[in-house]
Design a protein that fits this description.
The chain is α/β, with parallel strands linked by helices. Helices cover about 40% and strands about 20% of the residues. The strands form three sheets. It has a five-stranded parallel beta sheet, sandwiched between helices. Strands 6-7-8-9 form a four-stranded antiparallel beta sheet, covered by helices on one side. A two-stranded antiparallel ribbon has the order 10-11. β7 and β8 form a beta hairpin. It starts with a strand and ends in a 6-residue tail after the last strand.
């Protein structure tokens, strides 16, 4: 799946290497050296994916994600966060702030291309899917919008797909590994803590409508969109 990718990396040698590998894989690439420059460019152009280094001069990559996720016009841009930080807490922090994936340096070209492919497939529009209405929630897969009681909710792309799956399989319990397969895809490269992070973000998105408790944690089993009280 060819894509337009914006690389945000302050090291010229790494920019050159990433560009060569991504172009070889069939993608179109633009590079900038900092988060502020990327932010200005994103006001004029929307890439299919942002490959973003965490450690940047000035505004960090994580800070840029916060800015993008708070902007209704830019929050749907897929982001893969790149970092030399390999502690679990750093990966979770990157995902919690809104990254779609997190890749640790050093990484192979094959791993990078695979992760880009997974994120792009997850982000592909579901134009043929029908609007879902259940429990006061309305999901429109074509527009990637969610509303409750007529009130639009702010929700990220991954959380949208997670909610779409859970609500169309209401009252069924799915383990983390099952959710990874169904929502992220069987070729997702990562661990099941990713699910916990996005469940937390989904609950926060539903909180303004008072629907966060419908996402139930079933201890020892997984998660469920529960229509009934209790459980």
């Amino acid at each position: 799946m060819a894509a337009q990718i914006l690389v945000v990396e302050d090291e010229p040698a790494i920019q050159t290497l990433l560009t060569a590998n991504l172009v070889r894989a069939g993608h179109a690439v633009r590079c900038v050296g900092g988060a502020e420059e990327a932010r200005e460019l994103l006001l004029q152009w929307r890439p299919d994916l942002l490959l973003l280094d965490w450690e940047l001069p000035g505004m960090s990559g994580v800070d840029l994600i916060r800015v993008l996720r708070s902007d209704p016009k830019q929050r749907e841009v897929p982001v893969i966060l790149v970092s030399a930080r390999n502690e679990e807490r750093d990966k979770i922090a990157g995902l919690e702030v809104g990254a779609d994936d997190y890749i640790t340096k050093p990484f192979s070209t094959r791993e990078l291309i695979a992760r880009i492919g997974v994120v792009l497939r997850r982000r592909a529009p579901q134009a043929n899917a029908e609007v879902v209405r259940l429990a006061g929630i309305v999901l429109d897969p074509a527009a990637m919008t969610v509303s409750a009681a007529g009130r639009p909710l702010s929700i990220g792309g991954t959380e949208f797909r997670l909610l779409h799956f859970l609500i169309t399989h209401a009252d069924r319990v799915y383990s983390r590994s099952q959710l990874l397969d169904h929502v992220w895809g069987a070729d997702f490269v990562g661990d099941d803590r990713t699910v916990d992070v996005h469940i937390s973000r989904l609950r926060n998105a539903l909180l303004p409508a008072g629907l966060d408790r419908m996402i139930r944690t079933i201890r020892g089993s997984g998660y469920s969109f529960a229509l009934a009280e209790g459980g």
